[in-house]
Amino acid sequence: MIAEKLNASAKTFCRHRLLRCLHQLRLGVIHMAERNSYHVVPGDDVWKAEREGSSRASSVHDTQAAAIDAARGYLSRSGGGELNIHGKDNKIRSKDTIDPGNDPRNTPG
Predict the structure, then answer these.
(1) What would the pLDDT profile of 87-99 be if each residue is shown by its tens digit?
(2) Can you give the residue range of the structural domain that contains 18?
(3) Per the domain annotation, does 108 fall within a domain?
């Protein structure tokens, strides 16, 4: 009987907490977590895999392909996300959504 009352109290508490969080989210008091993103960018004779918002590179590689493979691995192990690949001119030349990230488009690629 005591266990049943505690279980009912826990369900009520969780429901109220969820509703409060949803309300705060609608008001803009709290924000959804930012997307998990990595950028492959050129450096001085190297290619770097950088997490978006980080002050330093996650890893440094001799080739762009190696940096892309590393960034794909980081994203797939951390729940997926967006991979932004920059060219030598530092402009984004391609983007890829790594599973289980959320692809903003419905088309493959």
Answers:
(1) 999 999 999 998 8
(2) 1-32
(3) no
